[in-house]
Design goal:
The structure is a single chain. The longest helix has 13 residues. By secondary structure, the chain is of the alpha+beta class. A 4-stranded mixed sheet has the order 5-1-7-6, covered by helices on one side. Strands 2, 3, 4 and 8 form a 4-stranded antiparallel sheet that branches. The chain is globular, with a radius of gyration of 14 Å. The chain contains 2 helices and 8 strands. The N and C termini lie far apart (35 Å). Strand 2 and strand 3 form a beta hairpin.
Amino acid sequence: MKVIKVTGAIIQEGNEFLICRRGPNEKAAGLWEFPGGKLEINETLEDCVLRELKEELDIEAELHSLYDNYRFKAEDVTYDLYFYKIKKYSGNLSKKVHDKLKWVEIKDFHYYSFLPGDTPVINKLEKENKV
């Protein structure tokens, strides 16, 4: 089975986290996710998440640390997912690939349909924030 490495960014301001809705031309359009994307050849995981934030949101970011890593199996592919917390960012958030960006408290995540692969990291965030 094919394995794809993917990075995601957890951007928090106060009690809210940035979530993004996949645009109509994207695979899994309409589902919410943390920003990020696939690792490219000769790229580190850290470089990948920073590149994706620039490409998707037009921001420059500083990584805090790797927050979570796990494997998620879909029908025909397995994803190695790496979620990084973002220490800070600069620039104005811009929708480059998503059709919506939203700041949401963890307690309200259940109102949004997320990509299935994001469920374990959401559960971890909820547990740590006692939701």
